[in-house]
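Cross-check.
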Amino acid sequence: MDFFIYVICFGVGLLFAIMSACSSHIFGGHEGHLDVGASGHAEAGYSNEVTGFSPLSPTVIATFVTAFGGLGMVLSRFALTSSPWISAPLAALGGLGIAGGVFAFFNRVFQIAESSSESKVASLMGMTATVISPIPQNGVGEIAYVQAGTRYTAPAREEHGAAVANGQVVKISRVVGTEFFVVPA
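Predicted model, tokenized:
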């Protein structure tokens, strides 16, 4: 009976992994993207939230279930660990270890990806830009800037709320969310 439970866990975890892989290509399960519309508007931003990867994500849970089932099937075949009182805790520990490894791997990948985008936004501070849509007093206009040879546009406010005319050269002082704050150059 315990072997059957391990087979079910292994099968459910494996089936979930296969379905997730196939459905992500069919339904476009990729979350990260950069939107650049027809007007050339690019959105960039910074927040204090760490994207990371959750230890309770479906991927980590499915990894645990699959590893628990697979290890349980193997352990239940050896005479020394054939008792479910021995094989189940060992399979659970092994499953936790493998799921922990998957969590650590994906968490590191997401941290590297996040830090690289943050550093690109941080490199914008002090960069010059041109106002392409006038910034009204205490309002939002639009700027254009060039980074790494590519021209981007972004919504912008004057740092102190002053109006800035079209065509003026400004410096980017900070970025909050998708909004750029500028000062006269």
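Confidence is low (pLDDT under 50) at residues 28-50. Helices lie at 2-27, 58-75, 84-122. Passed to J.P. for a second look.
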